[in-house]
Backbone:
């Protein structure tokens, strides 16, 4: 099915190529999505970014996108087709597109690429990501304060640094306000599979979790929590406000629009350079969704204070003293984690002390 | 690891929910195969039922109406298959595979506007008194109505096949269509009805995923459940109560592996995730090693009255 769809898409793009010759002065921007644009989460927000680009530049820009592109070999084909179809700038919006993006970029030196959440850069490949872990700190704080069973469920996707940072950050801040808190983690091995996400949420709730955090993209866990009643959740990647004020009490909102507009402008001006961008709450790339009335006023106020101190840079989400899971010291008192290096955040592959279980390898 | 954190009562209750889509699709397919037709289009009919049920559920606000529409759409799609294989005598395997691909494509076309929408879902029946019984209450008497519909369907199919004249004719058509034809039974008409029943059941199964279990519409959301239903029919040796057993076994392992993960059991996640499929394959192998599986005699063969 996938290949058939790709075939159709490529036929459509070949037509687009013929059209591109007529309107030479427009800049063509392509987007590769891992889920459908209607997922209500991760891909939805990238699609909002694409729409913002269209709105900002109007006729000067032409955008194309392909949704539900599997990570891996299929992605390489999809990106290649987009480059062949005359795209000037291509955003590949999932971690698993990292190597395919690098491979295709090597074949198309004149096309600019932007890969989200990865760590491999090239002359014509920029990387960009958001410091979602800052948002996770706020979630962890609210979760630690709100849980009555002291069990917090976490639906993780793939064991990659971004997800592990999120788990660690949420745990550190939950533990700080509630020393008895325990995390139960299910690795779903998918970004988007509502049936699996719903089953995972139900399993966590049945084992006593009254807070469910998710690093998967659909709203299925929200629906499962709503059905269960006294369980709170957080919107992931998108506000998921449909599920507020309960179970969704807050959210992490990805805001890609300013970045996409700036990068498209750079291509138009001929000033595009390969850069590495990693912005957080302060720069507006990560937003914290409205904290609902289900959260007591004092908890809400403190969570907002935490958010603001993260935004101003006055507080870092990974501030020592912190040990790794095996008890070896990681950060000394007052020390903050560096972005890169052996123990840096970019390549984080360990749990902090107190978390149970092992990271699948 | 904290195995005592897994509550067996809740586990059984949620495995029943997880198994219901497969159960519905499998019991329908069992009847189709009992009539001597192999319809590999279960997945396509399920996903079509899922999207139609969801669309009608959203537009009408009534999940019950959604289920009715899903059953009709599944049956309608299966009639396409029936005309092709029964009237135009096409190959059943190829036509069934085609039906699956057609259903997947059609459903993503219909479903595009419904992505990310919310739908009213079926309320659970909290049956008074009965649901308060310790242990049995939460397992048996606190489900949404479709769980009971699926169980009643199993019982009805079992009774009809075993003890009624209609069931006898259906089995005769499936065992030896030439002999049944000589006796004056309308082979094609019987098979048409069986295929329509199978399609309706698959549609219900699909709608259960999009209206109750998730509840949301997502492209490709049945994720192979139709194929599992086909495997379970073989697993069950075409017997209704064993279909129930097979579906609950599969659903049980699916739910159990997530619970084991949450409880922190030190088995690598990859093995847990593959376990439902591996165990299904192992059971199928074990059954075929036994030799006699009780497949209907005319299963998959083309019937033409002139033969």
Residues:
């Amino acid at each position: 099915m996938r290949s058939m769809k790709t075939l159709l898409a490529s036929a459509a793009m070949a037509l687009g190529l013929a059209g591109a010759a007529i309107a030479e002065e427009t800049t063509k921007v392509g987007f590769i999505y891992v889920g459908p644009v209607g997922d209500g989460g991760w891909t939805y927000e990238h699609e909002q970014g694409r729409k913002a680009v269209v709105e900002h530049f109007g006729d000067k820009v032409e955008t194309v996108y392909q949704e539900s592109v599997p990570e891996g070999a299929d992605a390489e084909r999809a990106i290649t087709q987009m480059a062949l179809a005359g795209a000037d700038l291509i955003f590949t919006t999932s971690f698993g597109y990292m190597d395919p993006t690098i491979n295709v970029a090597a074949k198309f030196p004149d096309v600019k690429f932007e890969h989200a959440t990865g760590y491999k850069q090239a002359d014509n490949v920029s990387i960009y990501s958001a410091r979602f872990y800052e948002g996770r700190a706020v979630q962890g704080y609210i979760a630690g304060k709100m849980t009555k069973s002291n069990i917090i469920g976490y639906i993780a996707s793939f064991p990659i640094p971004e997800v592990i940072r999120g788990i660690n950050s949420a745990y550190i801040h939950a533990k700080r306000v509630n020393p008895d808190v325990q995390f139960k983690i299910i690795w779903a091995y998918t970004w988007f599979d509502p049936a699996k996400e719903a089953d995972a949420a139900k399993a966590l709730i049945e084992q006593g979790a009254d807070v469910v955090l998710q690093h998967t993209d659909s709203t299925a866990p929200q629906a499962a929590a709503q059905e269960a009643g006294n369980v709170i959740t957080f919107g992931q990647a998108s506000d998921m406000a449909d599920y507020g004020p309960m179970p969704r009490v807050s959210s992490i909102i990805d805001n890609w629009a300013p970045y996409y507009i700036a990068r498209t402008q750079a291509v138009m001006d001929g000033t595009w350079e390969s850069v590495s961008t990693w912005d957080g709450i302060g720069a507006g790339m990560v937003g914290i969704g409205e904290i609902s009335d289900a959260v007591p006023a004092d908890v809400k106020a403190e969570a907002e204070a935490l958010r603001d101190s993260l935004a101003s840079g006055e507080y870092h989400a990974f501030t020592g003293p912190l040990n790794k899971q095996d008890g070896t010291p990681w950060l000394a008192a007052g020390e903050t984690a560096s972005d890169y290096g052996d123990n840096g955040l970019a390549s984080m592959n360990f749990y902090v002390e107190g978390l149970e279980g092992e990271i699948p390898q | 690891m904290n195995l005592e954190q897994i509550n067996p009562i809740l586990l059984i209750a949620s495995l029943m929910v997880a198994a219901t889509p497969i159960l519905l699709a499998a019991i329908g397919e069992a009847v189709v195969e009992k009539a001597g037709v192999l319809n590999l289009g279960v997945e396509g009919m399920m996903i079509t039922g899922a999207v139609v049920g969801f669309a009608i559920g959203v537009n009408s606000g009534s999940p019950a109406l959604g289920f009715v529409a899903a059953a009709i759409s599944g049956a309608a799609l299966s009639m396409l298959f029936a005309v092709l294989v029964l009237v135009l005598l096409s190959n059943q395997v190829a036509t069934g595979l085609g039906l699956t691909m057609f259903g997947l494509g059609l459903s993503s076309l219909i479903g595009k506007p419904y992505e990310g929408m919310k739908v009213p879902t079926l309320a659970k029946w909290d049956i008074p008194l009965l649901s308060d019984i310790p242990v049995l209450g939460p397992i048996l008497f606190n489900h949404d109505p479709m769980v009971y519909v699926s169980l009643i369907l199993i019982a009805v199919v079992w009774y009809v096949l075993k003890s009624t004249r209609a069931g006898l004719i259906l089995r005769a058509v499936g065992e030896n269509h030439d002999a049944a034809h000589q006796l004056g039974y309308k082979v094609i008409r019987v098979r048409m009805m069986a295929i329509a029943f199978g399609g309706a059941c698959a549609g219900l199964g699909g709608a259960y995923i999009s209206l109750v279990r998730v509840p949301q519409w997502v492209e490709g959301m049945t994720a192979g459940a139709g194929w599992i239903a086909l495997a379970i029919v073989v697993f069950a040796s075409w017997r209704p109560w064993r279909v129930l057993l097979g579906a609950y076994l599969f659903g049980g392992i699916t739910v159990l592996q997530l619970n084991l993960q949450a409880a922190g059991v030190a088995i690598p996640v990859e093995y847990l995730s593959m376990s439902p499929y591996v165990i299904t394959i192992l059971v199928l192998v074990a059954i075929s090693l036994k030799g006699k599986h009780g497949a209907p005699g005319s299963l998959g063969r083309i019937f033409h009255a002139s033969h």
About this structure: The longest helix of chain A spans residues 2-20. Residues 71 and 148 of chain A are 39 Å apart (CA to CA). Residues 14-23 of chain A have pLDDT under 50 and may be disordered. The radius of gyration of chain A is 21 Å.
